[in-house]
Amino acid sequence: MTEFAGIRWREREVCIEYVRIAPGRTDAPLVVFLHEGLGSVAMWKDFPQQLCDAGGFRGLVFSRPAYGRSTPRDEDERWDIDFMHRQAYEVLPAFFEAIGLHEKPWLFGHSDGGSIALLYAARFPDKVAGIVVVAPHIFVEDVTVANIEEARTAYETTDLPQRLGKYHDSADSAFWGWNRIWLHPPFRQWNIEAELAGIRCPVLAIQGIDDEYGTLEQIRGIARRAPQTQRVELADCGHSPHRDQPEQAIVSAVTFIDQNRSPKP
């Protein structure tokens, strides 16, 4: 069942949609799913349910402001270079507070959501049990920009707006917020490698070898700066391992959480 939580952010009231998975598993680890740059609750489809069922976990899936059924971005709202930092440092804590979440969750983040998970874990090391990051970004690469430029052309010339409209109340809000900041020339300098040293929790980093939005240097760079990181590099897999190879993504994540969770008293 979809629920909504209100927070105050960017000097206005914002409504965030979220869905709880298996809340009755009260003693189970809680996994919070952080979606990609064009994602939402609906865009995950049934993957969070599958992962939680496989591991016997609880789940929390939500749409960031501007996405899904959450409050859309104002038409003239332009995101800044630090937009992922603000999601990690401002939106996520405010959302957790709004829904009364005070335990240490596991974060499962894809793409931009993975970057946000890394930033949150670095800033709030005592508030997260561990993180699974899938095709995250820690710096900007030429291949990323080139494919985001192709996405802009597709949005302007194909039925991509209609297809995205299945997952967002406002496809324009979701697409242009993401696309414009990634193609903003100063964003080429965006880099969160220095922040990674602050991560203390266990980290699992998964990436497809054929990722069209980044090279394996993204997760290898995480492992160099957070040496507790476990890496999984998947052959015949693109930017979305949870869609390209869901069984492998689930097995890897469940095994990782089970190996690193605190034993029951």
Automatic annotation (TrEMBL):
TM helices/strands, residue ranges: none
Keyword Cell cycle part of the UniProt annotation: no
Family annotation (Pfam families): Abhydrolase_6
Listed InterPro entries: AB_hydrolase_1, AB_hydrolase_fold, AB_hydrolase_sf
Residue ranges constituting the AB hydrolase-1 domain according to the UniProt record: 31-251
GO molecular function terms listed in the Swiss-Prot or TrEMBL record: hydrolase activity
UniProtKB keywords: Hydrolase
Top-level taxon in the UniProt lineage: Bacteria
Record flagged with keyword Hydrolase: yes
Identification of the protein by name: Alpha/beta hydrolase
Source organism of this protein record: Variovorax humicola
UniProt lineage: Bacteria, Pseudomonadati, Pseudomonadota, Betaproteobacteria, Burkholderiales
